[in-house]
Amino acid sequence: MRMNNAVAIVWAAIAVAIPYSLRAGDPPAHLADSLAAGNAHYVKDNFKLAAAAYGWVLAQGYESAALYYNLGNAYYKGQNLPLSIWCYEKALLLRPNLEEARINLDLANGQLPDKVQALPRMSAWVLWQRMVNAMSPLGWALSTALACWLAAMGLAMLLLGRAARWRRWGLYLVLAAALALLGAGTLAYAQWAHRKNPRQAIVITSNVYVKSAPEAHATDLFLIHAGLNVHTDDQIGPWAKIRLADGKMGWVELTDIKPL
After folding, report:
1. CA dihedral sign, ordered 54, 56, 62, 68
2. Architecture of the structural domain at 2-109
3. pLDDT of residue 194
4. What does the pLDDT read at residue 20?
5. Which residue did the predictor score with more confidence, 138 or 236?
6. Whole-Å CA distances, 237 to 96, 189, 230, 241, 254
7. pLDDT of 2-53, one tens digit each?
């Protein structure tokens, strides 16, 4: 166990030392210079300038897992732990299997003062989440296209096959492709819906007293700190109802959190 932890820490140290290649999708030409400038600032340990360059690119409407990962590293090296965690979470929303972001997120979360013990999840829920995040959106799109192609081939065998054996195999292929299409489509939609509205946020204010009601004079229930990932359940005016991984709930001001 100690060896595994040591390997993870070493890997994380290497990962934050070099900007991640933006191979998740080539950015528009007019943004390439800003990305290059951000990488150059990062290598020279000018982490605030690197974060500003990466942030400007995001402000232009371009985003990718690699860009959020690089921005997260710049914030992390610049001692801005809450925003680094937010960026790593955004990177994992876009690419759930980005192991570098997962390792760095765990490293950053380990430095938070709040140690929240998550409630146990049902095995079925854990399995479902693993299936949803098994592939990227592109992977699910390709799987859906393959299922459609197999369904078309099976339909052709069913309608045009002269021998009963070919028609029978065509029917089997159509049924199998239909099941695959249904499964891939369901998982793709679940991943898209989670990315579109993850209902999660990162606390960005140093100390936040969680209230019993959405009003400033309500009772203080407990204290949380910057960097904590919370689930957002509801919103009333300038207040958001949050839920911690251990089940605790309460209200905080919207200015205290940054939604994913």
Report:
1. positive
2. Alpha Horseshoe (1.25)
3. 64
4. 53
5. 236
6. 32, 30, 18, 11, 9
7. 444 444 444 444 444 445 544 435 677 778 888 889 999 999 999 999 999 9
CATH T-level topology, domain 200-259: SH3 type barrels. (2.30.30)
Could you state, in order of their start, the residue ranges of all structural domains in the chain?
A: 2-109, 123-196, 200-259
From CA 200, how far away is CA 93, in angstroms rounded?
11
Structure-model confidence comparison of residues 161 and 249, the more confident one:
249
How many residues comprise the chain? 260
**Dist CA 57 CA 13 (whole Å):** 25
Q: Using an 8 Å Cβ cutoff, are 188 and 144 in contact? A: yes
pTM confidence score: 0.71
Q: Which amino acid is at 160?
A: L
DSSP string covering the chain, please?
-HHHHHHHHHHHHHHTTSPPP--SSPPPHHHHHHHHHHHHHHHTT-HHHHHHHHHHHHHTT---HHHHHHHHHHHHHTT-HHHHHHHHHHHHHH-TT-HHHHHHHHHHHTT-S----PPPPPHHHHHHHHHHTSS-HHHHHHHHHHHHHHHHHHHHHHHH-SSHHHHHHHHHHHHHHHHHHHHHHHHHHHHHHHHH---EEEE-SSEEEEESSSSTTSPEEEEEETT-EEEEEEEETTEEEEE-TTS-EEEEEGGGEEE-
